[in-house]
Amino acid sequence: MKATNLKCEYLYNPVGIDIQRPRLSWNCEGGVKQSAYRIIAMSDGKAVWDSGKVRSDGMHAEYPHTLVSRQRVEWRVTLWDESDKEGESSSAFFETGLLKQTDFTAKWISGNYSVSRLRFYSFKTVKHIAASGDNMWDTHHIVFHKNISKKDFYGIGSGTKRE
Q1: Do 122 and 144 form a contact (C-beta atoms < 8 A)?
Q2: Averaged over 44-63, what is the pLDDT?
Q3: Mean pLDDT of 52-74
């Protein structure tokens, strides 16, 4: 028996969840009925939770520990079938977003151009500005002044309307 469709908060491998104790779920494949499960969770290469063998036909569990911002948890499920035969394990992960207001420390990165909020920039205008060599959108080089083991960049921008 094998666990399939591993989800956290009803999502496959979610990044940026804001739930302190997320719900984990799965489906079964290759057996008549699940008789038990075991979940092992790792974070930063260390085991943070081992449920042990839990006698249950339920295909869900709640993560029992409080999470911190930007924490990645890799979890593995092993199932036992109706004959108490241990099956192959399956794995997935989830990652938390920023959970506390004090964790929001980002700064805006913007180009060295001015945009009139009263003017509509059509797709043709944008193509013309780009073709003319004006730097409406600047290429940004991000310099980090310390060693960083993990980088996440989340970008937003306004769209353009095609004519």
Answers
A1: no
A2: 97
A3: 95
